[in-house]
Amino acid sequence: MRPFLSHPFDDDKLKEECGVFGVIGVADAANFVALGLHALQHRGQEAAGIVSHHPEHGFNSARRFGYVRDNFTNQKVMDTLPGELAIGHVRYSTAGSKGATAIRDVQPFFGEFSMGGAAIAHNGNLTNAAQLRKELIERGSIFQSSSDSECIIHLMARSIQRTVPERMKDALRRVEGAFSVIAMTRTKLIGVRDPLGVRPLVLGRVGEGYALSSETCGLDIIGADFVREVEPGEMVVIEDGEITSSRPFAPATSRFCIFEHVYFSRPDSILGGRSVYETRRQIGVELAREAPVEADLVCPVPDSGTPAAIGYSQESGIPYAMGIIRNQYMGRTFIEPTEQIRNMGVRLKLNVNRGLIKGKRIILVDDSVVRGTTSRKIKDMILDAGAAEVHFRIASPPTAWPCFYGVDTPERSKLLAANMSEEEMRDWIGVDSLRFISLDGLYRAAGEPEGRDPRRPQYCDACFSGEYPVAPSDKLAEGFEMKEAAE
Amino acid sequence: MRPFLSHPFDDDKLKEECGVFGVIGVADAANFVALGLHALQHRGQEAAGIVSHHPEHGFNSARRFGYVRDNFTNQKVMDTLPGELAIGHVRYSTAGSKGATAIRDVQPFFGEFSMGGAAIAHNGNLTNAAQLRKELIERGSIFQSSSDSECIIHLMARSIQRTVPERMKDALRRVEGAFSVIAMTRTKLIGVRDPLGVRPLVLGRVGEGYALSSETCGLDIIGADFVREVEPGEMVVIEDGEITSSRPFAPATSRFCIFEHVYFSRPDSILGGRSVYETRRQIGVELAREAPVEADLVCPVPDSGTPAAIGYSQESGIPYAMGIIRNQYMGRTFIEPTEQIRNMGVRLKLNVNRGLIKGKRIILVDDSVVRGTTSRKIKDMILDAGAAEVHFRIASPPTAWPCFYGVDTPERSKLLAANMSEEEMRDWIGVDSLRFISLDGLYRAAGEPEGRDPRRPQYCDACFSGEYPVAPSDKLAEGFEMKEAAE
Amino acid sequence: MRPFLSHPFDDDKLKEECGVFGVIGVADAANFVALGLHALQHRGQEAAGIVSHHPEHGFNSARRFGYVRDNFTNQKVMDTLPGELAIGHVRYSTAGSKGATAIRDVQPFFGEFSMGGAAIAHNGNLTNAAQLRKELIERGSIFQSSSDSECIIHLMARSIQRTVPERMKDALRRVEGAFSVIAMTRTKLIGVRDPLGVRPLVLGRVGEGYALSSETCGLDIIGADFVREVEPGEMVVIEDGEITSSRPFAPATSRFCIFEHVYFSRPDSILGGRSVYETRRQIGVELAREAPVEADLVCPVPDSGTPAAIGYSQESGIPYAMGIIRNQYMGRTFIEPTEQIRNMGVRLKLNVNRGLIKGKRIILVDDSVVRGTTSRKIKDMILDAGAAEVHFRIASPPTAWPCFYGVDTPERSKLLAANMSEEEMRDWIGVDSLRFISLDGLYRAAGEPEGRDPRRPQYCDACFSGEYPVAPSDKLAEGFEMKEAAE
Amino acid sequence: MRPFLSHPFDDDKLKEECGVFGVIGVADAANFVALGLHALQHRGQEAAGIVSHHPEHGFNSARRFGYVRDNFTNQKVMDTLPGELAIGHVRYSTAGSKGATAIRDVQPFFGEFSMGGAAIAHNGNLTNAAQLRKELIERGSIFQSSSDSECIIHLMARSIQRTVPERMKDALRRVEGAFSVIAMTRTKLIGVRDPLGVRPLVLGRVGEGYALSSETCGLDIIGADFVREVEPGEMVVIEDGEITSSRPFAPATSRFCIFEHVYFSRPDSILGGRSVYETRRQIGVELAREAPVEADLVCPVPDSGTPAAIGYSQESGIPYAMGIIRNQYMGRTFIEPTEQIRNMGVRLKLNVNRGLIKGKRIILVDDSVVRGTTSRKIKDMILDAGAAEVHFRIASPPTAWPCFYGVDTPERSKLLAANMSEEEMRDWIGVDSLRFISLDGLYRAAGEPEGRDPRRPQYCDACFSGEYPVAPSDKLAEGFEMKEAAE
After folding, report:
1. Which of A481, C402, C468, D393 is the most exposed place for a label (fewest CB within 10 A)?
2. Which of A142, A145, A161, A336 to mutate to test the interface with C (most CBs of C within 10 A)?
3. pTM of the full predicted structure?
């Protein structure tokens, strides 16, 4: 049964909502999927699910709240998931207003079609799901979850195509938004990315079989060799050791999510041929050039600010130091905590290294500022410990717009940068200086030496720029106001 | 109920066995103890216990397997622990051969005496517990646990003194070994350290009350101000806001455990007036001087090698980089894992940052080598990722002797350094070079500019030197052979 | 999470598969439903579910494995089910061959339609569910459960009617078999019985509101007054305190299940105006007339044989006695029991009253013989205790045919009476005499003084007679052979 | 972990506090103990414990809250209890005022002595436990539980005898009160009854081994043959297939608890050579003679009133009927129930058979009246169902005094019969007549044709007569006032 989750501690981060993993052609495929999902756990910590298929035992499924390692390592559970073909999904819990997740919201979703069953796992977000859902219900479909992803399986069920891949094409041509989808039938493993390739999806080879994973770190853990990325707009179908590729969508220019480089993906993953760690370190280098300051120590806000802090230190020559220590036994789930625990907030997770900080001028490097509440608390802790000065350096531009492509963002009104100038933010947080990397600086660090091409941006950066590559139809219908074109 | 724990992954570290925390004079004292134990979780992850006292509700106790945050944050549990006085304990699970821990082995231990009850929590290990236990059983004491610490409470029960502090003195004069003990009666909080002060214990002030903690990081989390260390051989009794100090034991020279600096304590703690982080960074500096090597990157084995790697990089000028990434969702408890999971070992926890490592000459900095098995696996991972050379630098001297003072060490025969020379170890691990810091270098980093004084060593370094400051009587009776004096 | 159920003990009974309960117009309706389901627990012990509706909080649902009292009495769970309108369902676990029940098989089923949501709970079994399911899948419906009842909600989703009651009529006109269905929308409570009225359904008044229940004992527990039965082929819709009745089906003669009188229903329920207890006692009276024997004691096989044993004793004048004692702490769920426990079988549940039995001629009255295995074990126990003679008297005719209308029956080949004559059964069980009540005797006890009308039987007695009032289409398609008409 | 029990339903019964079981000389002895305890579950439902010994694996123990069948049937648990020698205990939860039971209060208790370990399980209650405990604590014993039984093991630990049986004798000669104790060492199974033999204890033979059980029903379930009762004041020691009997105490006249016949023991047990069922039926016969009344039906209050109701019916000629039906899915544990559930009280458990009762004059036979609250509620239910008259007949004399010998009784002030005359009780309950069996009638039914011998009563009947065969020292010290001798 689901624990009554509470999140008393303001994580104050954008949150990737999902990770997907699939494997075909290896014994005990579900075990590999469990390992892959464990490596992708940073993409979703609330729940996980695995579906497997075995010629004799058919499709089997297990879906659980909690970490992968707490639910999918046990022999007894894994014995219920036999076969050489399996897919899985990790899911992030979206915030309160959307209502609590039920176990039936946990993917993969399974549908029995007239030609056999199929399961799908979706990373991303459909921007026209509300309209599709309404239409499907009117025609007699019964939805089991509150997930936008369920539209895909109902659209597939209603397609008159005779194979699952063709039904998927039918379905995915009807949806808008961002999607990296992994699907399976009794014999096929299928991977698709939306035309813009907003979310990542990579292909690997493991023994005689193949694996699909949101990130390369999922391939590493099972010892799979990286083959290539599934390309934006591509569908791959793997069956009997053969890969078939097709392009079901109209051609489009890729717009990969730049925030995957900044924060979402693991530093040991390789995205678009670039080491995520190296991109983040380079952000620090750019930041040191754009926003230098005299100080004694460069300290990361752990753990996500670490690579940029290293880069800043290397470029500036100011020594790098662990000024804030993270409690490694901190989890996210607190069941009905006491008032006092609730009020501890960030101190449960972080402690200042007092012996180091006292009397020093500190540069703190963090990955982003969302609501800004954590930044204030960290500043308080650092000053309490006796720092002489505190300078914040942020490894991303101001986050001023919500994401509608599979990331949990606060409403625009709660984004600090949507409401304040950089100076106002500095004053509100209460630090000696606050500087964000420029959008061009970020693009340079991400491998675009000329910076951002304003006419045809190389990445999706809607959260910084407000320029949405896919119109968020459902949100517009709800009244969301996009940036004016003239701006 | 206790999960059937299994530890399929060779942690290959020495393990501190306990942490203790107590507080008096604050509302909801048990909440503070829970927070303090959460900060001390690195000293023991298997189980935790808290005892509180309330004038109306008397003594109450809760003992649980698992992390503090999973058991002692819940309102319902904490409501059962009312009062302004409480103590707690975290405990490490010792390995299989000693048999499984039962909940009755989890401290604090409580005894009802004729003048009232008392509870104790012990960090350390008694070296004459077996003899004491035998003697106590012969006289009619009934032991409830297999813990050496239980002897203390039985000795107290049999003392003819009329107060708990006096009974504690009686009891502690009979025991040998290492002990930092926190105790409580209905009105008193008591702290004692053994004459050599092998394990840490610090005193802090919180509001109108006082706290005792194994390390200063426990004070930080509750916002307590550090007052001073409880001194070796000292007993402090806190009652009604007054602290009384006494010295129950014969005077002796302090021998604080140097491994607390190397690995056990948290880097944000301050021990003996020294920042643990700074000592570790300085170890890296010394190591760079003692054992330089040409290379492209200095990488820590996370997380414990990090400060020394930073120091090594700073002294050598070779860039610091995160060559190995730690999965932050890795816990220790796997319940009946599948064979495949069991075999994954270190890969569940660590992944190489392949994009960074390929073709590079890597210096890996780790805190210690115990069995050496993890070092081998890490070397394999690094070479698989395409490193050109691998050089291990170890932030402690070779660990060649077991500890009998509250640390879980393998038998001597399983310690790599007890059986091989440094060169043999290098070959067995299979790296291009392997160097340990010298004992003198370690002492210098730990604040002794002249290095180790061989006649009166400033620290306990038995695990490196084989020189045991307290004779391990029980172990000698079992046949353990000490290093010959002539050596 | 679901316990791994095992049923090591041959219950050797036909099992009612479901009970349904609903209430409208009372505060905290779900609490009443929980109580009603507790009273109906004998109709299904594996799982239970409740759906409620509240104007502000919408539809809410909770479904759990285990007893009602273990899951639906807790304040926290019940707080999640607010509103003045709620329905519920208890479910029996069908045996292994059909595969384990998943939580998604637990009713009520909920569907979101274009005009709003509806939930349904079904007692009975659809005999054409397989064909309907195939057809629905071909048209794009996605089934979430393996339950035949789910067809109803999909048929409703596809109906083009504009109200839920009209959609239910559309749907129920397409299904065949036995059904007593309770449904709810945001404002209506609906009850329907199939044209033959095979399963019971009664209407009660509670305060200003109304209740629907499988049996009158469900009304008693909440203090509701019995109003009347929902009639065979009738639909009642209750909204705003008004009851609307309609007759959606072609008229038919009622064929109520006679086994509800024999065993399924609770003895304190009133079915068709008759006290179940009294009918059962009267069966004993008839049996004493049809099959007298000289003996010392009449003993029931507890608890279901008790009323008939009382009747037998009263008619025969042979003293009634509790010769077999039931262990009241016996439950059904054993999780992975040891071999020895598994082999104990009936002895875990029943013990012979040795002090009473020794040397006596015993008449044992049981409700039915299914596989006969329990009868043999009971006979062994009675003889071990020293009985001089054992005479079995069975309160139902030989069970020779499976039921397809909502009862879990073994395959025909496993029914003792399908394979043996009464004498063969007597020899196989090993008793001095074995007699079943005649079908006419049973009808007389059930209020038909002339016995069974062979041309238009007043009850459904297919399990005894093989005459199925509704053709079991799916089963016939699978190859089930019905009794030949000539017989 | 222990559920937070609540008992919202006034059980309104005296409660036996314990049952004990032991076996030696059979493979997997703990399995037999689990079965025996399951049969003795009526003697204690809160918790159970088993200790076993195996030559290789030593002593092992498991103690759990909840029913035996929920905790001690599982293969995994039973695998932890290997060996051919085991003992066990079931325990009743005493009411709130005494504080919640902790798992450490659950027996068997184990002690490690200098000559080896021993475990004990105790049924009964020591009347001088408080004094003994005080004395033991003063001498340095540390108590782990709040149980009076723990005194025995501490007294044994301090004995200077060299064998466990001799130490038990030393210990048991110091205690006062009622005790049937089963103990075990590595090789011996030991049984002892106090000199008055207040609580039962029987010896059986199973295969090549022996069993000890509180009641004969415990022997029946494992297929053991009844050998004889352990006699009042006797100790039996079983080792290597040999039984040694001794008499450690001063001779005394037996005073077996007569309430074991009335209510505590199972009806299929044989106590003192008498069938419990038969005694209870005979009580009904006596009651019909002592307190006849014209009526239509004799109905038991299920289940404990059943045998007496049968006897009453047989003697009076008034038909016996099941006028009240018990819900067999009713358990005792409700975790934080809703207000509404809490208020349901007896209706969750019992329902009136309305079809039977209406317009009838009903004789209700119950085993006892304690607080009287349940009697009132049952009367209400019966009248609500339309009964014309209600006559209560009680199968025991008025319960006017608390029991101090191992039974949970309310304080004297809460016993209805301690505060009212029979007529006052009738009025307070609100029935047409209320009659209790006389003390002499009860003795006659229990095999004493001359009734009670007032000078040397054959049974302990303190709860009826106020004549305590052992002075309740601790209670007298607390201020309990015994009946004056003159009375």
Report:
1. A481
2. A142
3. 0.89
